[in-house]
Amino acid sequence: MRNILLILIVVMSGKNLANAQTKTTDTAKVEIVQSEKIKELADKHIQINEKAHIRGYRVKIHFGTDKSKSKEIKAEFIAKYPDVPAYEKYDQPNFNIRVGDFRTKLEAYKFLRKVQVDFPAAFLVQDDIEFPKE
Predict the structure, then answer these.
(1) How many Å apart are CA 101 and CA 117, to the nearest integer?
(2) How confident is the chain (134 residues) per 10-residue block, as mean pLDDT?
(3) Which terminus, N or C, of the chain has the lesser number of Cβ atoms within 10 Å?
(4) What pLDDT is attached to residue 38?
(5) CA 53 to chain CA centroid, nearest Å
(6) Number of C-alpha atoms within 13 angstroms, CB side, residue 2?
């Protein structure tokens, strides 16, 4: 009796598998079921990475002890290159003006050549840069 029942179950399940394999549909739907904690953790990870800095290069266009001169040079740079970010940093006793967020030295060097027309004392520095907004 057990053998007959076992054979019947195997035959019926094989028949259902054969039917399942022959059916095709044009659309597929995937549903992901996960805990809200996983989504919160992923969102937190994204927020942390948005604030993170990466190593790259900037062009230093000025450094000196005169704060007003530094602000003047920064304003001059922003007027000439409005699409390039400019950063002012105080490293005692100097005020530094660094510009750009370049991931490679080659990118920074190309911009340096362009800027040296207006700021001949400019040079490359390695720095923590802002994460690209791309």
Answers:
(1) 19
(2) 59 51 68 86 84 86 93 95 93 93 94 94 91 63
(3) C
(4) 87
(5) 9
(6) 0
Task: Give CB contacts under 8 A, 24+ apart, made by 85-92.
Answer: 85/130, 87/58
Map the chain to HEC letters: CHHHHHHHHHHHHHHHHHHHHHCCCCCCCCCCCCCHHHHHHHHHHHHHHHHCEEEEEEEEEEEECCHHHHHHHHHHHHHHCCCCCEEEEEECCEEEEEEEEECCHHHHHHHHHHHCCCCCCCEEEEEEEECCCC
Strands 53-64 and 86-91 turn out to be unpaired
**pLDDT score for 17:** 47
In the block, tokens 């800095």 appear at 53
Give residue limits of the domains in the chain. 55-129
Closest residue by Cα to residue 128 from 94, 103, 91: 103
Q: Please give the Cα distance from 120 to 21 (Å, whole number).
A: 73
Second-level CATH architecture of 55-129: 2-Layer Sandwich (3.30)
pLDDT at 108: 95
